[in-house]
């Protein structure tokens, strides 16, 4: 189950990198959410899994309601992104299984691959909807990455990450006035 | 309960100011009262004592508490003596939001909590209307979030020893990316409003963030203190040279101020990297200087910079002396402590820092002139900032004692 959940998280992150439309982004976010929730469940953290599903679920539904009504998967010029998604996945797999040791390799793989891919999504020129989606996935992965430690970070961190994720998904860019 | 109040009250003040924006007086009053109560909670907090009221352990260190109080004082100074063209309600809204975030960063006992707060602050700032695009404004802070998260994974995972060395690199790189120093300078638009520009990161949130990240770094990778310090000193020297030269040579006045913050951060990084008492003291004094003097002076210089009206009055020269770190200002005491600390550690380092300090004078004269002809509130503000800086320079011990040094 852990391996499948980790793969789902990577696949979701790859979808967020490869999509421009709201359906593709929402599906990617849902997969990332389910992946991290599955990993938390596998680690015996039921409350954490519920929190992640709630936060990520709200964000995915929000994404499905706003933005361009299309899948927008792999628009022209996406070859580099496809290569990036595969390369980051392979690199994360190598680091989490060969360089790093001990139990929890699926969680390390999921955390490293989602962090890497979401960083790439935010740092490359993009419109606000994909960037916001990547930020939501980033918030979830920050909390999930804390599970790499020997001692559990406790459910509070996951609840906070879920609140942050849901909050980010409700932000409307450009509506707030600056000082 | 104090850390929770220190976070919650300024946040409530910020929300109040935003909600009551159409009634500026009510907004100012409500936000000021809540902000003041938040600062009182910071002042009354027992350093090092952990509060777990919300299920998350929160505790303020003495250094963070001292810098939070300095940030609150800087906010009060800039709001009370804001130029007439600046809307105080908006300034207070953003200032209190930043203060709440800083309190949360300072109180966070886990690196992940700190990272989430940085993420929230960066999204809130980037979502506001500003000169640069949403994605560009997010780049620096989000890169910091990713680097710090990767560092945390490397530090916690089992494996070869070099993983903790990677973690040290990630922590220092993440800190630089969040603050906006070299090699991750944030893109700066001279015409952008201060609240949505990179200035809040380097001049307001940065000081508390740096201390919090380093405190967490010492817990995560206690064996890598040497590597952490060496990287910070190296990057510090780079920032000193680059920041001061660019501040002197750049054409745009606002950009010159931005580079001057980077140069100051170079010294701060050197001080924090020395990891001995004198270095820490120097860094804290420099951070006080950034919060209580350089940031307010930058805000008061904005109008003059727009109107391109430099001036050479005595007060401009005094401001230049303060920015250059000459006696009797706080910068002088900080530089003496830094050189003494560097000499204790490795004397050629003191020589390199000393040579770097010579680069401060030309840009400081330029920045002092850029304040223009000071009148009314701005003149009072610059006078108060100079006075505070002199007091810290002449009597640094009480301010260092407040920071537990």
Describe this structure in words.
The complex is a heterodimer of chains A (179) and B (405). Chain A is mostly helical and 179 residues long. The longest helix of chain A has 21 residues, at 22-42. Chain A contains 7 helices and no strands. Chain A has helices at 2-18, 22-42, 46-65, 79-99, 105-123, 128-145, 155-169. Chain A is globular, with a radius of gyration of 15 Å. The model of chain A is unreliable at 175-179 (pLDDT under 50). Chain A starts with a helix and ends in a 10-residue tail after the last helix. Chain A is 73% helix and 0% strand. Chain A has one domain. Chain B is mainly α and 405 residues long. Chain B has a domain at 1-107. Chain B is 77% helix and 0% strand. Chain B has 17 helices and no strands. Chain B has helices spanning 2-19, 24-44, 62-80, 88-107, 111-127, 134-156, 162-179, 199-220, 225-249, 253-274, 277-307, 314-324, 330-345, 347-357, 361-370, 376-394, 396-402. In chain B, α4 (88-107) packs antiparallel against α5, α9 packs parallel to α14 and α12 packs across α16. Chains A and B meet through α5, α6 and α7 of A and α4, α5 and α6 of B.
Short description:
With 179 residues, chain A is an all-alpha fold.
Main features:
heterodimer; A: 179 residues; mainly alpha; 7 helices; 73% helix; 0% strand; globular; disordered C terminus; B: 405 residues; 17 helices
Please write the string of helix (H) and strand (E) elements of chain A.
HHHHHHH
Question: In DSSP terms, counting alpha (H) and pi (I) runs of 4 or more, how many helices of chain B?
Answer: 17
Task: Write the H/E string of chain B, N to C.
Answer: HHHHHHHHHHHHHHHHH
Runs of chain A in which pLDDT lies below 50 for 5 or more consecutive residues are: 175-179
Oligomer: heterodimer
Mean model confidence by pLDDT of chain B? 90
Rounded mean pLDDT of chain A is 89
Greatest interface: A-B, 50 and 45 residues
Shape label of chain A: globular
Largest sheet of chain B: none
Please give the share of residues in helix of chain A: over 70%
Rg over alpha carbons of chain B = 20 Å
Could you tell me the strand content of chain A as a percent range?
under 5%
Indicate how many domains the architecture of chain A comprises. 1
Q: Roughly how many Å apart are the termini of chain B? A: 25 Å
Write down the Rg of chain A.
Answer: 15 Å
Strand content of chain B is under 5%
Spatial shape of chain B: globular
| Secondary structure tally: strands of chain B | 0
Tally of strands of chain A? 0
Helix-and-strand structural type of chain A: mainly alpha
